[in-house]
Amino acid sequence: MKILIVDNDTSTVTTLKALLLSQEVPFEIDTAYGGQEGLDKMVAHPDYDLVLLDIMMPTISGMDVCQQMMKDYRLREIPVLLMSSSLPIPPGEFQESLQKFSPLSVVKGVIEKPFVIGDLLAEINKVARRPL
């Protein structure tokens, strides 16, 4: 399974990559340290099974990345799990609001930092193009 992690926090990227690579699942992990770098990688290689995308990043936020993905027919097929340390609304309400988006919406869920690996793997399996 090919996953792109997009987050401006290098420690989050490093930790998340190590957590995923320590699993028995054959993950192929790519990383980007900002929204534009993530978009550039997706345009160059639109075959990711999942993007783990931080919501709050400088210059190009995670929501901006999602809006750009929706404009490209190849990128809007890539499922996205948004990551956040804290949300302005409870996660359950955020999940409900996702249901109101277009059926083409790339956002398939949200996970909160810090990660519980079992919960993260369950979410990945639920939304990735190719389940675990």
CATH architecture label name: 3-Layer(aba) Sandwich
Strand content: 15-25%
CATH fold category name: Rossmann fold
> What oligomeric state best describes the polypeptide chains here?
single chain
Helix share, percent? 25-40%
Query: Distance between the terminal alpha carbons, to the nearest Å?
Result: 7 Å
Largest sheet: 5 strands, parallel
In total, how many domains does the architecture comprise?
1
In the predicted model, the low-confidence regions spanning at least 5 consecutive residues are: none
Number of helices: 5
- SSE series: EHEHEHEHEH
Number of strands: 5
- The whole-number mean of residue pLDDT values reads 86
Which structural class best describes the helix and strand composition?
Answer: alpha/beta
Shape label: globular
Can you tag this structure with a few keywords?
single chain; 132 residues; alpha/beta; Rossmann fold; 5-stranded parallel sheet; 5 helices; 5 strands; globular
Would you mind describing this structure in some detail?
This protein is α/β, with parallel strands linked by helices. The chain has one domain (2-127): Response regulator (Rossmann fold). It is 38% helix and 20% strand. The chain has 5 helices and 5 strands; from the N terminus they run βαβαβαβαβα. The protein has helices at residues 10-21, 35-44, 62-70, 91-98, 117-127, and strands at residues 2-6, 28-32, 50-54, 80-84, 107-112. Strands 2-1-3-4-5 form a 5-stranded parallel beta sheet, sandwiched between helices. It starts with a strand and ends in a 5-residue tail after the last helix.
